[in-house]
Amino acid sequence: MDPIRNPYAPGAGQRPPELAGRDEQLDAFDIVLERVARGRPERSLLLVGLRGVGKTVLLNALRSAAVRAGWGTGKVEARPDQSLRRPLVGALHQAVRELGQSGGGQDQVLGVLKAFGQAGAASGARGRGRDRWHPGIAAPAAVGRADSGDIEIDLVELLSDLGGYAADTGRGIAVFIDEMQDVGVDDVSALCAAIHEIGQAGLPLIVVGAGLPHLPTVLSAAKSYSERLFRYARIDRLDAAAMEVALVAPAAEEGATWEREALAAMYAVTGGYPYFVQAYGKAVWDRAPRSPITAEDVAVAAPEAEAELAVGFFGSRFERATPAERDYLRAMADVAAGVLTGPADGATGAADESVATADVARALGKRPQSLSPARDALLKKGLIYSTQRGRIAFTVPHFGTYLRDHT
Questions:
Q1: Domain count, the chain
Q2: Model confidence pTM above 0.85
Q3: 86-115: string of b/e by CB count within 10 Å (b at 16+)?
Q4: Residue 230 three-state SS
Q5: Exposed (0-12), middle (13-18) or buried (19+): which is 152, by Cβ within 10 Å?
Q6: Are both 303 and 329 inside the same structural domain?
Q7: Fewest CB within 10 A of the end CB: N or C in the chain?
Q8: Residue finishing a domain among 318, 353, 386
Q9: Number of other residues whose CB lies within 10 A of the CB of residue 316
Q10: The domain containing residue 348 runs over which residues?
Q11: 150: number of CA atoms within 13 Å, CB side?
Q12: Listed residues 318, 337, 361: the one ending a domain
């Protein structure tokens, strides 16, 4: 079939041609926007799930919905080695511009935003000379507002002022934060405090975050009341019906169809994970000689899709680990599948199940305490996460299977 007309789009954060299986989240967010616009109380929203389930795609779709509703929006991608202050300045500056208001009110809130950014620059210099970063805001910096250098004090003041400005315009502001589990401890605490403050004041400003499954734990460690600030939406793999829509609808736009047996074969190899659906879909389309696409076409193309995933999706992550960390990852995969120790406590025999850290240590023939550096490093790199005390799992679906088959 013509590869130029291939409708499938595997890519990090790249929106697929058919955003299937997410209607519930999109509809719920439309209600949130309308309620906030009417002055009704609403919580901020967090999307949590494994890598490859489409959190970033959904986050971008929610942002588009906010833009259509006339809100000011800005987006940040958190990094573990970067303070949230500077990225927030750029995101919030865009949000204020999107509101499209001008005059003294806008200049005043932009002045507070500029002061917030410059306070971070001053506190980050630490004797190395003045940090010459400038936020690119023409308004003069405010004095005595969001400029203390204490991120919690400053962020509460900043978001309160922005929320008040949005209320004056009759609209709202939505801040979107991707990879939110990588926000630093102090910044998480400040963000929770600010959301708490604007929630109590009933201001039209919400935060929409996306992160790995342990994000709720990160937030609750920062502020005990964080679980009451957010509404959590667990983003998981697609069911068979949603996966069929994701494959069939784009193909129909190109005049092609899938046989039922081919769709069943696709669900078996992809597990319904959206990234895998797109990756296998692209490979199958390119290999299939004609429409309709058959189960045999899936079987022929599957090795090609698996090889690409092994390099780009799995291999790139495995390469980030040190030799000791790789040993730990392999042991996790083997323990989960019952290869080394028999089925792990609570596991079901699949190589992506959570495992007990004690079982991993036993499989490696080492004391659990001696493996703490490797485990902690993998947690920081986002390759594994803690499902509960004493248990860990991969952040990437099918990673255990990859490790057992390719390493």
A1: 3
A2: yes
A3: bbbbbbbbebbebbebeeeebeebbbbbbb
A4: strand
A5: middle
A6: no
A7: C
A8: 318
A9: 10
A10: 323-406
A11: 10
A12: 318
